[in-house]
Amino acid sequence: MTTTSLPVTPVGARTAATHCPYCALQCGMSLTAEPGRTVDVTPRQFPTNQGGLCQKGWTSAAVLDAPDRLTTPLLRGGDGELRPASWDDALDVVAGSVTRIQQVHGPDAVAVFGGGGLTNEKAYALGKFARTVLRTANIDYNGRFCMASAAAGANRAFGVDRGLPFPLTDLAGADAVLLLGSNLAETMPPSVQHLAGVRSRGGLVVVDPRRSATAALTGEPDDLPVTGGAGPVGDQGVHLQPVPGTDLVVLLALLHVVVTEGLLDGEYVAARTTGFDDVRRAVAAWWPERAETVCGVPAGRLRHVARVLAAASPARGGAGAYVLTGRGVEQSTQGTATVTAAINLALALGLPGRPGSGYGAITGQGNGQGGREHGQKADQLPGYRKIDDPAARAHVAAVWGVDPASIPGPGRPAVELLRSLGARGAAGTYAEDGRPRALLVHGSNLVVSAPDASRVEANLRALDLLVVCDVVPSETALLADVVLPVTQWAEEEGTMTSLEGRVIRRRQVTEPPGEARSELWVLAELARRLGSTVVFPTEPAAVFDELARASAGGAADYSGLSHARLDADEASGGPGLFWPVPAAGASLSPHPGTPRLFLDRFPTPDGRARMVAVDHVGPSDDVRADAPVYLVTGRVLQHYQSGAQTRRVPELDRSVAAPFVELHPVLGVRLGIADGERVRLTSRRGHVEASARWTDRIRPDTVFMPFHWGSAGSVNRVTTDATDPVSGMPEFKVCAVDVRSVKRADGTEVVA
Ligand SMILES: Nc1nc2c(c(=O)[nH]1)N[C@H]1C(S)=C(S)[C@@H](COP(=O)(O)OP(=O)(O)OC[C@H]3O[C@@H](n4cnc5c(=O)[nH]c(N)nc54)[C@H](O)[C@@H]3O)O[C@H]1N2
Ligand SMILES: Nc1nc2c(c(=O)[nH]1)N[C@H]1C(S)=C(S)[C@@H](COP(=O)(O)OP(=O)(O)OC[C@H]3O[C@@H](n4cnc5c(=O)[nH]c(N)nc54)[C@H](O)[C@@H]3O)O[C@H]1N2
Ligand code: SF4
Ligand SMILES: [Mo]
């Protein structure tokens, strides 16, 4: 391993307007680079952040010169050590191994795993590389862990998936916002300002088994709600604290109340939706008292919330209402069903497509939205096209200059893909035939972030070839046979698409350190070495132009955009353009973009939104005698995802230096676990250890652990890889665990 401390080398203009490298809020910031100094970050006015940044944004430049930044390719030698190598040698090894593996085992034996942090250009190039050079069906990405259920629900109901089909700033005017399983006060802190209006009108409703920082914004007192009646209601809203994994029941009961109390927008339902009769029948049996027995939320509070939402709806003269979902309800085996129930509720109240109202899912990763539009998802081609649609294949094949028949069909979704790697003949894995033996990873630290991570690690170790492109030696990179150092964020040009579908520019201010190269170059070089005649441009603006052509006519149409147009828009004070932005015809002026979708119709064949009846089943791994406590997982403000980046930022690492487990003092006393004591959580998959943190902000039947650390502190050694049947999204949020002190009462360690 090489470690270098890097002086930052600025390019051309020393200050550039760009956006934060981390989450989908894509806060506006300016970067200034001067020779011999670290890059300075200053917040900038942009609609999503209004001049604010969170602690991660402020400190983001520290990753550019992390002491162990990857600056040269690394190859694993015969002795098992990773050693610096030249690009030529490293790329020859990759090309040689890929060729050998595919000759013996076929094209699908080489798989690709992408990431929602990649720019649109890189995501597009990766999907094209997989389909035209490797000709493998097996490409998927970490968005499957993140947005797949929201996408499946929205595509089915509305005919399109754009996380927020309206600008985030629209929330400001609403009378009510129902926020299910989102802790945006920690995951997108500057966005909280858009909730000021609704809070001042007492209309914020947060659904979370924890009194999260976001739930606390409702102003509800910290102790658990009393049973019966409406219970305590905060001066700024209501916090519903359900049993983990029962949000679907909460939503079915809310719709039940809307129907039985005559609060529905009948005119809208008749004119703009189909399927309501089935949905009405499905919610008939979920009266609030019955729902309370399953979800634990008092019936009176369910009725209260349904009435607050209805009063805010346009049909009843309110200023508007929003229903929003986050990972807390989507990372579930019934994630698509829960999203569908949230959409059904919004449709019954007449919200989607009405200015000032709507349904949305809060996209997570920096380019989590664009990352799912340009073809790194197993079933997609650029422009959010379906890979099994003959017209889509013909269009994209023409742009790529290949025969449509040469484009593979749909591949395996992420969890299935990871399960199929390596391990031979073990229960639940694929047969020997067709299992991938090589994996190329671009932008994910999946050995920390994938569910049932010990199994994932074993499968990665069993591969014939693991290639990881990264900026730092992540836990996954350290398992690789070949590590390729790539550029990040402030070292590259490109575009990102924010949580609202707004296409924005990422700009370069420093030269890449050492020999780090753009992934666009890496893919082009590999294509050449693998004998492909398909052209891979390496200039981001040229890649974007090709992407725009490939997307023309698709749901996510970027054909009216170019880097030049985005730059000109920004120079004239414009805040980016929302897709779809189709190309203008010869005589027309440029398309202005589409900030708000669904105003006139939904992009379904009949123009109406589809309501689909759903029902509650419960978590796949429910509590039982030997695992009597619910484990829920999530995030803290200071760390990002697998922590590969933020654990390398000294200020963030100092703030939250180690994994922890939140538990209620009542549970602590019953299990004999003191505040600060070391605990072990054990599930059917494995165990994890961390220190206990007592807090009365969590249900006493539930513990919470963030997933930002690897090895023995990785909560994903415990989580289940059971997936949603429609979306393939894993159930990260809820599983059953045994919780005990690591030390026995007599002071001896518990033996595994
Ligand atoms: N600081 C920080 N910010 C981030 C990220 C990060 O890693 N760190 N990642 C970004 C990404 S990729 C994403 S996807 C977003 C995620 O953003 P969020 O969805 O806000 O994040 P989480 O913390 O995963 O989950 C939100 C809440 O779900 C709750 N929850 C758990 N189980 C349940 C349940 O059964 N029902 C309900 N109703 N709630 C439940 C948790 O208690 C938690 O408070 O954040 C983005 N922003
Ligand atoms: N238990 C539990 N697990 C979870 C979740 C949860 O809530 N609970 N949430 C899930 C969710 S929503 C998500 S999004 C995933 C995310 O988890 P991961 O997929 O692991 O995401 P990151 O940690 O962001 O990893 C990104 C990696 O890419 C590198 N990188 C940054 N920029 C580039 C680039 O331009 N090119 C390349 N090649 N590499 C780059 C970073 O250094 C880092 O190593 O985790 C999931 N895992
Ligand atoms: S909220 Fe997200 S985009 Fe904004 S500064 Fe924090 S991490 Fe960056
Ligand atoms: Mo995510």
From TrEMBL:
One example GO MF annotation: 4 iron, 4 sulfur cluster binding
GO CC annotation terms, alphabetical: membrane
Keyword Ribosomal protein attributed: no
CDD domains (alphabetical): MopB_CT_Fdh-Nap-like
Annotated SUPFAM superfamilies: ADC-like, Formate dehydrogenase/DMSO reductase, domains 1-3
A Pfam family of this chain: Molybdop_Fe4S4
GO BP, sorted A to Z: respiratory electron transport chain
4Fe-4S Mo/W bis-MGD-type domain mapped to chain residues: 13-68
InterPro entries with a match to the protein in the record: Asp_de-COase-like_dom_sf, MoPterin_dinucl-bd_dom, Mopterin_OxRdtase, Mopterin_OxRdtase_4Fe-4S_dom, Prok_molybdopt-oxidoreductase
Keyword annotations: 4Fe-4S, Iron, Iron-sulfur, Metal-binding
PANTHER family, per the entry: NADH-QUINONE OXIDOREDUCTASE SUBUNIT G, RESPIRATORY NITRATE REDUCTASE
Protein name in UniProt: Assimilatory nitrate reductase (NADH) alpha subunit apoprotein
Organism in which the protein naturally occurs: Georgenia satyanarayanai
Organism classification: Bacteria, Bacillati, Actinomycetota, Actinomycetes, Micrococcales
